[in-house]
Amino acid sequence: MRLDRLSRIENYIMQQKQVSLEDLAEKFQLSINTARRDVIELENRGCILRVRGGAVAKGPVRSPEEIDTRHQQNADAKR
User: Fold this and answer.
1) Signed CA dihedral, 73, 74, 77, 79: sign only
2) Alpha-carbon dihedral sign for residues 50, 51, 53, 56
3) Can you state the percent helix, strand and coil of the chain, rounding each to 5?
4) Mean pLDDT of the region 33-55
5) Which residue among 22, 39, 65, 70 is buried most deeply as judged by most CB within 10 Å?
6) Helix, strand, or coil here: 57?
7) What is the band of 3 on the pLDDT scale with cuts at 50, 70, 90?
8) C-alpha distance from residue 40 to each of 55, 65, 68 (Å)
9) Secondary structure of 19-52 in HEC code, one letter for each residue
């Protein structure tokens, strides 16, 4: 049951991009403490990032080359 709940919470966070603990508690009918423990568990698994009062979906990992390219494009656009 807990694994199913964690999976549903992870999917919800990925869809919403950012959620508060209150949102999770209300949506999944949990206490704030249970929502917090589940968010900590998902963060430990590397699924999401925990932020103050909630969680955010992990974005795609960017390579240093991608970052350098974007910096150069942004610098050119600013000139």
Assistant:
1) negative
2) negative
3) 65, 15, 25
4) 94
5) 39
6) strand
7) confident
8) 9, 31, 32
9) EEHHHHHHHCCCCHHHHHHHHHHHHHCCCEEEEC
Long-range pairs of 13-17 with CB within 8 A, sequence gap ≥ 24: 13/42, 13/48, 13/55, 13/56, 13/57, 14/48, 14/57, 16/57, 17/56, 17/57
Determine if residue 51 is left, alpha or beta; phi over 0 gives left, psi from -120 to 50 gives alpha, anything else beta: beta
This prediction has a pTM of 0.72
**What are the φ/ψ torsions at residue 30 (nearest 5 degrees)?**
-120, 165
pLDDT surpassing 60 at residue 61: no
Choose among 45, 21, 23: nearest CA to 33.
21
Residues making up the chain, counted from first to last: 79
